[in-house]
Amino acid sequence: MLAISLPPVIDRRQMVIATTADQLLVLEHERWAAPLSELVAQTLARDIEQRRADVLVADRGFDQASLMPVKIRVDVVRMSVHEGGQATLEAHWRVVDARRNTDEVGGETLSSPVAGGDYAAVARAFSNDLSSLADRLTAKLPAP
Predict the structure, then answer these.
(1) Which of 30, 32, 93, 113 would bridge 15 by S-S if both were Cys, CB 3.0 to 4.6 A apart?
(2) pTM for this one?
């Protein structure tokens, strides 16, 4: 089971670019295709499932009393991109496997270059960051 949280300042439809250390540019006409929290959850779920064919990622709506799923909680602390620079994702995570009585906590700050001058390049860079995070989380899942 995967649960994702993003701070409200990040979880918005408009893309936000840092132009200087203390200035943000809100791009009213450059928007994410869906709410950012949904995109992050879908991307992480897809990436984890691609890495582990024996894993099905679901949200809390899939919770069943008869199952003891591994629970992954990801708190995105920061998603930032600087003009012409790096897309950085900072996240704290927790992986709990009640069946094996394990509880692992960690954090990552991941960066990818924004390759290209368009806003699709920003989305690709964040996708690369989420892919790296999926690598870390998949390594914490119990072996089949």
Answers:
(1) 30
(2) 0.86
